[in-house]
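Fold this sequence, please.
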Amino acid sequence: MCSLESLKIDLRGLSDGETVREYDLDDAYFEAIEAPEVKRGNLHVRLVVRKNPSFFELDFHTEGTVIVACDKCLDDMRQPICTDNRLMVKYGAEHSEEDDLVTLAETEDTLDVAWYVYEFVVLDIPIKHVHQPGECNPAMIHALEEHSATRSSDEDEGKPIDPRWEALGKIRLED
């Protein structure tokens, strides 16, 4: 089990100027954070924290790979990650988050960046993730082709089509 303590930053304890932190995150990180979409991966995160008189500027650079399910065959696939993100942090009356601005209550000393790193990674994953051609699970591809062929052969044999499906078939999207 990975400890997420190293991803907590004592903002009040930072010296003026820049502070650099580097993290190597692996499967244990994703397990500890109880990540809903990504369960495994290897990432290197470089975090630069700039302390200014009235706010903090956090620049994250994250590189590595995560393991996600292929949308086509459902097997695991490696998804490269390379993302740069910025987070601004200031102190205020109460804790709040808006876009890339986090307001910490005056009584808080630390900022836990573990979940922010995860969100940045998930936002870098493309909506559609599919293996390169020829890398999908052949058994699953065969099953998909078999079921696709069955549907089209039913139409070719002259069997009547359910009128609800026939109406849907008439819908065309215009460019």
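Strands lie at 8-10, 17-25, 40-51, 56-69, 76-92, 96-98, 101-105, 110-112. The first helix runs from residue 27 to 32.
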